[in-house]
Design goal:
With 480 residues, the protein is α/β, with parallel strands linked by helices. It has 2 domains: 233 residues, no CATH class; 170 residues, Rossmann fold. It has 19 helices and 16 strands. The strands form 4 sheets. The protein has a 6-stranded parallel sheet, with helices on both faces. Strand 6, helix 11 and strand 7 form a beta-alpha-beta unit. The longest helix has 19 residues. The radius of gyration is 24 Å and the shape is globular.
Length: 480
Amino acid sequence: MSFNRKFMKKKSKINNDNSDIRILHDLLIIAYKKIKKKNLRKYENVILILFHELMYFFSTLIINKKIKNFNQPINKLLINKNLKFGKRNNKSIIKKKKRRKINLIIIKIINTTLLCFYKKKIIFGNSISINFFGKLKVITYAILFGYKIEFSNFQKVFIPKINFQKKIINQFLEIIEKKTKIKINDNIKKDINLFIKRISLKKKELQIFNKKNIYLLGSTANIYNRLNAINGLQESSNVYVFGHDKQTGIIDSLVNKYDDYCLCTHYVGFAKKKFFKKIKYKSYSDIDDIEPKYIENKNFSKNKIVIKPIYFNSEIISKKRGLYIPRKFSNYLSLTPRELLNYEKYLDWQNFLINNIDKLDYKMHPKDKLSLEQLKNIVSFSPKKIKVGSLENIIKNYDYLVIDYVSTTAFSDIAKSEKPILYFDLDLDRLTSVGIKVVTDRALKVKINQESTKNYFNVNSIRKLGKFTHSNKRLLNYIK
């Protein structure tokens, strides 16, 4: 069956594994290996440097070509029509980061006071998962050991054998155009070359570093963090990348393989170190299948989890108040060949769910691509059921929670609550063996039949599952 028919067919699944996205991914790996043969290190390889952007841009091109029914309201809102390499919504991804004035003042006072002691630097990147006390520890360490504290800025990187590497990119463009039937015009080629030029440092501009600096960075999917990580690795500094979500060890996603795990000397995640060691999945290694040095983030909440037993049957669901917490709507794109969400089908599922379970409200994602008004206009249930605001505060008003996607920080947050969780498995998640145990011990899992166009499940059938008493043993072991 062609992808066009499979994607748009009423009985198609919410999550599709698209062959053209897999071709894109595999061709990028082939291009990376061609450059690697020239004895270039991974952080000197232009394919890895641009991997995130290349996947984002070309997967979107592929999906835009495949989706024929642009007139569907959900497609009109989520199709990325203004696609341009190195940009989001016509704005360059290289934009100056605004810093809080109080942070700038504090750092300036510390650096000015201890100017004579400086030997090296600690560079703070964007979106780091460190709380206030963690940052205080870093500042104390800097004062004691003579580090100047800086916030990361836009940094150019040195890309050796640049003409050869550009030749490989051009070969990749020719092949991907032929294999996937997408049109790659001269403007696309020009945009890619201009982006490479903008981030490239000339050899004569290279500096020699005698001291190791320390880089504390958030996810390297962020271009500022990515370029600073590359600079840190090129100068043989210690580069610590802090995971931006709380699913380390739970999800089996290829995204970090080409982002965070590739461009660091140490990876700081939320799982216990012993759990990270147990995870023997390729997704928990870098592009060369080498595992990063792992550090447990001690800032993860260790509050005791108390779970209330609940009978998940039709009577309880009808009488108790439930809150549905979906994944967000975003532009059509795919950063891995494993996931391509059919938002038409997903919206159909959401409408069915809310309309078939009484007293079930809808929690809108805070980073949803759709505005509140847009969402209200495309759903078939009462707009009054849509709730916005802090998840932590909203769930206090409900007796149980409903989810259909656990590969998200939201699941980690609600797992710490006292609320029973009903998990409808739509085959959206890719979990490790540890993740499967954690999820099934914390939530009541119901497998959904996606082949039906009318009835995904029968509410009455949940009665057959009987009493489900949550076990928090494995979850507590995981986060403590």
